[in-house]
Write a structure and sequence with these properties.
single chain; 392 residues; mainly beta; Porin; 8-stranded antiparallel beta barrel; 8-stranded antiparallel β-barrel; 6 helices; 52% strand
C-alpha cells in the first residue's frame, strides 16, 4: 500500500503563468540536512545529530491551458530522494525515502517558499522484542514519510543560488505493525540547483482567470475502503478495517473540493476480540460495538489526475474504543477524551480522468493514513466514484 502512495504523485501535474514567462523549468537540487531526531517515549535511545543527504528532481510546471496552475501561483513539483542517518545506527539504523512533493512560492520575488512531501521510506533497522527492544518508533521496513519545510532563496552571485530551509520530517507505518510511535525530526537544510533546462517561454493563457467563480459546481462521492492495522501489540495479527463513506460538497476555484461526509467503519479486530473474550457489555451486540460512525469535513486539491486529500472529523459512535484505550493505557485521561472524539485522514488519490477537464463522472483509487487525533489508526486503500453536478 505504501508503494501506491509513491506512485500517486508520478502521474502528472502542470503549471503556467499569464503573459510571457521565463523561469527555471527543470533542475536537480542536491541537499544537505542536519538536525535532531526527537524522542518518541521515555525509553527512547540517545541520539547524535541527525544527518540527511538528498537529491531533488524539480520541475517548474508551465503550460497554457490549465487553470489550477495559475491559481496556485505556479508551484514546482517533483520527487525527493533522501538518505537519513538518525544518529543511532545500532538501534534506529538508516532510511531511504522517496517523496513526491509540491513547492509553493509565498512572495512575488519567489525568495520564500514552502514544500510539502508525502511518500514512503525503507528502514534497515526495526523493533525486535529481544534484539532491538528500545526501538519502539519503527517496527516495519516500509513506512509512510511526510515532509513539511519552509525555504528562503539566497543569490550569492549571478552564477549561484542557495536555498536554506527548516522543517519537520515524520515516519510512521500507519499502525500496520506495532509498536509504531513514529520518528519525528527537526531539520535544517541547504541546497543549490543544477539547471537542466534553463527557461521556458509561454504565451498568454487561453482562459480568463478573473472569470473563474469562487464557488462553482457541486458534487457527491461514494467511497469504499479496505484498511489494515494491528491491535494492541506486535504479537497481534493484521486485520481489516472496512469503510463506506458518502460525502458531497462544492468546487472552489475549480481546483479545490470542499466536502461534508458521513462514514461507517467496521473493525475486524474489535469484533474478534469481543467474541473471543466475551467482553461485557459489548458481547450482546458485537457487530454494532465493533462499528464506528463519524462525520467529517474535507479539503482536496485537484492537480490534474492527482488529488491531495485531507479530512478532519468527529466520532459520533465508537463504543469499543473506550475498552481499547485501557488495553494500552492505564486509565482514561485527557488524551483519551480527545482521541475518542477527533480523527483525521491524509492521503493521495489518482483519478481515471483528468480533473482539469471537469468530467461529469470520475473514478479514483486512493491511499490514506487514518488517525485518532494525531495517532495513527490504520492504513487504507480505497476506491471511489464521484459525480459532478454542473450549474445551469
Amino acid at each position: 500500500m505504501k508503494r501506491i502512495c509513491i506512485l500517486l504523485f508520478l502521474c502528472g501535474t502542470s503549471w503556467m503563468q499569464n503573459s510571457v514567462l521565463k523561469a527555471q523549468n527543470i533542475t536537480i537540487r542536491p541537499e544537505i540536512l542536519i538536525g535532531k531526531t526527537l524522542p518518541s517515549n521515555k525509553i527512547f535511545p540517545k541520539t547524535n545529530p541527525q544527518f540527511n543527504i538528498g537529491l531533488n528532481f524539480e520541475k517548474r510546471q508551465l503550460s497554457e491551458d490549465r487553470e489550477w496552475e495559475k491559481i496556485l501561483n505556479y508551484p514546482n513539483t517533483g520527487i525527493s530522494l533522501y538518505y537519513s542517518n538518525f544518529g543511532n545506527n545500532e538501534v534506529l539504523g538508516n532510511a531511504v525515502s522517496l517523496l513526491p512533493f509540491i513547492l509553493f512560492n509565498l512572495n512575488s520575488k519567489e525568495t520564500l517558499s514552502v514544500k510539502f512531501g508525502l511518500g514512503a521510506s525503507y528502514f534497515n533497522k526495526q523493533y525486535h522484542s529481544i534484539n532491538n527492544s528500545t526501538n519502539s518508533a519503527i517496527s516495519s521496513k516500509l513506512t509512510w514519510a511526510l515532509q513539511a519545510f519552509i525555504y528562503y532563496n539566497i543569490s550569492v552571485s549571478n552564477f549561484r543560488e542557495f536555498r536554506i530551509g527548516a522543517g519537520y520530517f515524520h515516519h510512521s507505518n500507519g499502525h500496520t505493525k506495532l509498536p509504531n510511535l513514529g520518528l519525528n525530526s527537526v531539520l535544517f537544510s541547504v541546497s543549490t540547483p543544477i539547471n537542466i533546462v534553463k527557461h521556458k517561454e509561454i504565451s498568454e493563457q487561453s482562459f480568463d482567470i478573473l472569470k473563474i467563480k469562487n464557488i462553482g459546481d457541486t458534487f457527491y462521492t461514494i467511497r469504499y475502503g479496505e484498511g489494515i492495522n494491528e491491535f494492541i501489540d506486535y504479537k497481534s495479527k493484521r486485520k481489516s478495517v472496512r469503510a463506506l463513506e458518502i460525502y458531497g460538497g462544492v468546487y472552489y476555484k475549480n481546483i479545490f473540493k470542499i466536502s461534508l461526509g458521513l462514514t461507517y467503519n467496521f473493525y475486524e479486530h474489535y469484533y474478534d476480540y469481543i467474541k473471543e473474550n466475551k467482553i461485557n457489555p459489548y458481547i450482546k451486540n458485537p457487530i454494532t460495538n465493533a462499528s464506528n460512525i463519524y462525520v467529517s469535513i474535507g479539503v482536496e486539491a485537484l492537480l490534474g489526475n492527482i488529488g491531495v486529500d485531507w479530512e478532519g472529523g468527529l466520532n459520533l459512535y465508537k463504543p469499543f474504543y473506550k475498552h481499547h484505550y485501557l488495553l494500552i493505557e492505564p486509565k482514561h485521561d485527557f488524551k483519551y477524551e480527545l482521541k475518542k472524539l477527533f480523527l483525521g485522514r491524509l492521503g493521495l488519490k489518482i483519478y481515471a480522468k483528468n480533473t482539469s477537464k471537469k468530467p461529469i463522472n470520475n473514478v479514483y483509487i486512493g491511499a490514506h493514513i487514518n488517525s485518532n487525533l494525531s495517532q495513527a489508526d490504520f492504513t487504507e486503500l480505497s476506491i471511489g466514484i464521484t459525480h459532478r453536478i454542473q450549474k445551469k
